[in-house]
Amino acid sequence: MAKPFPTLAIPLFLLSVVSLLSLRCGAFSADRPTDRRLLVLVDDLAIRSSHSLYFSTLQSRGYDLDFKLADDPSLALSRYGQYLYDGLLLFSPSVQRFGGSLDLAGILDFVDAGHDLILAADSSASDLIREIATECGVDFDEAISFQDPAALVIDHTSYAVSETEGDHTLIASDIFIESTTILGDEKIEAPVLFRGIGHSLNAANSLVLKVLSASPAAYSANPATKLSSPPSLTGSAISLVSIVQARNNARVLITGSLDMFSNRFLKSGVQKAGSSIKNEKSGNQQFLTEISKWVFHERGHLKAINVRHHKVGETNEPSIYRINDDLEYSVEIYEWSGSSWKPYVVDDVQVQFYMMSPYVLKTLSTDKKGLYSTSFKVPDVYGVFQFKVEYERLGYTSLSLSKQIPVRPFRHNEYERFITTAFPYYGASFSTMAAFFIFTVVYLYNK
Amino acid sequence: MAPDHGSFGLGALICALMLICPAASIRPISDAHRSAALELFVPVDGLFPSLEETYHALRTFLILGVGETSEINRATCPVVLEKLKSPSSSPKGFYDALRVNSILGCQIGSETLEDVASQLRDLIKGADSLMDFYYSVIGLLHVKGQGVSAVLSDAQGVFHSIKALSQSDGRWRFDSNNAESSTHAAGIALEALAGVVSLADGEVDQSKIGIVKHDIVKLFDSIKSYDDGTLYFHEKHIDGSEYEGPLATTASVVRGVASFAAVVSGKLNIPGDKIFGIAKFLLTIGVPGISKDFFNQIDSLSYIENNRISIPLILSLPSTVLSLTTKDQLKVEVTTVFGSAAPPLTVNLVQTSTSEVKNTPTVENQELQFDQENNIHYLDIVPLKIDIGKYTLKFEISLHDPENLNIYATGGRMQYLVFLTGYVKVDNPQIGVLDTDGESSASLVKLDFSKLDKVSLVANHLQKMRLSFQLVTPLGHTFKPHQVYIKLRHEGRVEHIFQLESSARQYKIQLDFLALLEQIYYLSGRYEIELAIGDAAMENSFLHILGHIDLTLPDPPEKVSRPPPQSVDRYSRFGPKQEILHIFRTPEKRPPKELSFTFLGFTLLPLGGFLIGLLTLGVNLKGFPSSSLPALSSILFHAGIAATLLLYGLFWLKFDLFTTLKLLGLLGVFLVFTGHRTLSYLASTSTKTKTN
After folding, report:
1. Fewer Cβ atoms within 10 Å of its own Cβ: the N or the C terminal residue of chain A?
2. Contacts of residue B8 in chain A, CB cutoff 8 Å?
3. Chain B residue whose CA is closest to A202
4. In whole angstroms, what separates CA A144 from the centre of its chain?
5. Chain A residue numbers touching B495 (CB-CB < 8 A)
6. Parallel, antiparallel, or unpaired: how do β-strands A251-255 and A116-120 relate?
7. Boundaries of each OST48 N-terminal domain copy (chain A) (predicted)?
8. pLDDT digits over B665-683, tens only?
9. Would an 8 Å CB–CB cutoff place A148 in contact with chain B?
10. Do residues B481 and B470 make contact, with C-beta atoms less than 8 angstroms apart?
11. SS3 of B151, please?
12. B421 touching A, CB under 8 A?
């Protein structure tokens, strides 16, 4: 116990530095889930110019974009154990190896730490980019050989009509996921332009979802060469844009087309083959803006606070319940709107009273101001129970609340005492006792 | 060797932007650029963030002929004037202000300009870095442009000082202390040298100019290229902020070379193809999204448009997808980079080739007709008897006036990829199930895609399914589409794709289920049949559900592979679950209360009988002690017994076992004493009576 101060002082100092840093950067936090600082990795800085519209929509929404070449030797996602960025945009499809110390594991750790990722590939997608996608549950269609560029998605029935591009690799797709949380309240009217490689979803991964799918007639092949074998990816199995929401609520967007973010596609008009509607502007801008709002947690982020439970008629939370008690359970749920927490109003939040399996599963009623509550009777089974709220909805972050609470049986004096059915027994006992008393007197003093 | 990632990436980007690299189609500057310029350069209250950006905006507007400058004029001129009058302005400050003024034409007194000119002359004398020379010389050139005399007296010396910074490979250094040579600097230096030449009061030494001309030729040796003949300048990645991308570097060289060529006599020895390649590069970029890139592109193209070396003529196809159904014409535009009309010329379609079909007659040497009104060269494709497909067209431009050959660069033969599309007829489609011998064709059904009829077939593993059809192009040839396969889908889950092969003018597939047993995992049941035929040249590509086939297959042997796992239902975890209500144990069944009370009454009956019995027997209490002390102990003893019995009553009513036992203990001790006294008294009295 010679010098307690230096050992204490160092963590304190670090703590203050860290808190200063986080204050300065306005970093990602539980209170403000929207990302702020984004790292954009590119193969060539010319993407800044050719994709400037997309970047400027991000910047106008308050994001801090840091452009770096993917092979920049000074590349780092974290420093001193702190992540420098909240989100990563991988717009560098052909990078074979990242600069600096960043590698596949580094990217995965970044996502595992709850940060968001947008990955855009194209036909030049490198093995590294493919591996990152594979780790996220998405398999890009493989290139057949080195000379042969990767297969592109071809669709001879729902391509975008163009005077200059005739090989039907410019896809106009309007098969969106049905979720206003992910794609915004406004319906996307114009088809989205896509040119690039298709991918399929890993059959075993339940977290990855198709946001934009190819039409049933699409297939993935090299348009320049004759097909020697049936295409490996066809029809609706081809996903053009997919999303993943990890268990830690990190969000990932994966697409096989870097072009779909380009100014040219964003500004271009679109007419889908076979349709007479000519859209002035493709749906890309709306689609990509809305989905980036989702990816960067401007939408669909829930938080649950003030989980409370108590016996009916009381206000304090007991440490134990007895079987057959009547209890009330309440929780407040709020949704992040991008700038503030707003009450989340739905009618399908459910609570479970759970021990090995749910004994009670009940839908909570809402007061439309974010408070959800219900009451129910504790089951007549004792043991250690949990109040569980497992709330998973398409597009929303999942809520997983659990609170442990033991349930005991009746104490010996809590059982019913005067059971009418037993009155004959009592009557017999007491009449015997009275007779005994009389008998003692009579027996002793009778002469 | 460190790979040059920058240029590689740009290559990838350009490839990505254009469809197919070798036959990239480029278009001259169009209205897309004009509207983009107005979106990119947006002044706030007539002001741009800096004078440099103001110049970029104004110059772009001027070249493209768009934008309203009066408000910019009103807001910016005071800034320009202030900058010019400020004694502390740097060469760059003067340079920016003067070049903005050269476009805006602000009301600046000639004294101010003369004052600026003399300051700039002083700066030139004291300059030692390339940028200082550049800013001052160009600044002075702009002063001259305002009609104020701005003669550079020591032009020879300045020319020499700038030339001293050049390197042997045609590149320049930014200053004498910096050994790093740069292509970007070369462009700046050439522009500065051009300025010096035009500011000189006399002739600049022709031999020196000759050396610079030679340098320029060497500079062009370092030009980089893509496979399609696109040329550009690019620098190795220099550390720090001096790095300029290929666009900025190329633009700088173009400005420098074009300005230098404009002021010196004689022609620079640069092949027109190189200028053409650079123009192609600048146009390939499309519409840049960053204002600086946009300015560089437009500005350098304007230099190319008016340069004295050779003016590139861009041959472009407004449409590369031509439909035979609507009898589209092959149209070709030949313009300068800004889309202005070219001198009289003829466009020849030198060759048409296709890699797909060998026997198609290739068209050779067709002269395109010229539509004076729309400035378009056109050719009707229908009389050429070209079938649908993907063609590589080679064009050549021949200028009418031989003098123009030296002025214009046409880029030689140019290749374009063109799609001829048309309606493909599906002839004689038949589907059916055949027996093993393959003979009984009676069951073949003719399909009609225009109707919604679906076939329904039944087969077992000893039979075969056969599908055949012919595809005929508008010219009556057999057509081989890129996508032609059938899909069998087992109950909406497991899919199998079979590619159709063409033989003897028809597509035919015969699925022998016995051979396919392994492949389809012995799965019996209903299979949906889907036929997909599609091609880039086919206007009626389609995907039809033909119907279904019910397969009866034998049971799978043991060691057969299982069908691949079907993907999990990703949406099942969303959405509320079924509510669960706990079912409580039902309380045990009890008899009705009345019954209990009746039996209570019955249990009390023996007590009554006992009392009546006692009365009938005529019991008495004569034995009760008469003397006071034994009577007291007897009373206490019986009171004790009564208390014990009462305690039992209380135990039933409210006490728990612990209270009861405690009290019972006390009462017990009390009872032992009083009982002993009472009983011993009774014993003694009874012996007394016996002895008596």
Report:
1. N
2. 43-44, 94
3. B567
4. 34
5. 234-235, 237
6. parallel
7. 37-295
8. 999 999 999 999 989 988 8
9. no
10. no
11. coil
12. yes
